[in-house]
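Hi Prof. W.,

I finally got the ATP binding protein of a transporter prediction working! I wasn't sure whether to trim anything, so I left the full sequence exactly as given:
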Amino acid sequence: MLEVRNLTRKGEYHNVSLKVEAGEVVSIVGLLGAGRTELCLSLFGMTRPDSGEILINGQPVRLRSNQDAIRHGIGYVSEDRMSRGLVMSQSIENNIISTVFHKVKGACGLLSDSKAQQLVARMVNALTIKAPDTHLPVNTLSGGNAQRVSIAKWLAISPKLLILDSPTVGVDIANKAGIYHIISDLAAHGIAVLMICDEIEEAWYQSHRILVMKQGELTHSFLPDSSTQQQIAEVVNG
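And this is what came out:
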């Protein structure tokens, strides 16, 4: 589904090549500053690589903006939901429909309340977002439920690829399990998932493949079935 060939952005990442197939969860682990988020920002059209190729379903694409990425079916859940992922003072509903306003417009081009409510209700139900009223601001929710809203807003575009940057940061243990279930369910429904993980244990349990990034380069690839967390940790920290 996604293929990256020799992607380079000076000072951030170098000669990166990877693939993520439909229904596959691929995680990237590494130390802070390894270049993982920087790579994902380019895959979502927020920054431009200096060289290399990005292919979607075998076809080269130019992602000059996040709108280009969205048109190609790419969603991006930011590591910083409070400043980049969500508008915390806005309602749950407004955040979820922010990526798909064109889907919830009425005949006159204005917001259709009924269409918006139907879409939001579907997302809230699918991700088991616990909120008494979707008109409440996101900042009234727990960290786990706010993260579900962040994921919901990108699921609303029916993505082919979902990039998850540290999706369980700031989420309590109980809600982490729920996020993991969502990720597994996305893959089961054929969505390609590229995930940045700060915890090797998380990547090991949740991924089909694990890539190690060091100083801007992908250096190793592991299969959880044939590797241990200790082996991966030794490479990351070595």
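The CA atoms of residues 185 and 191 lie 9 Å apart. Does that look reasonable to you?

Thanks,
D.
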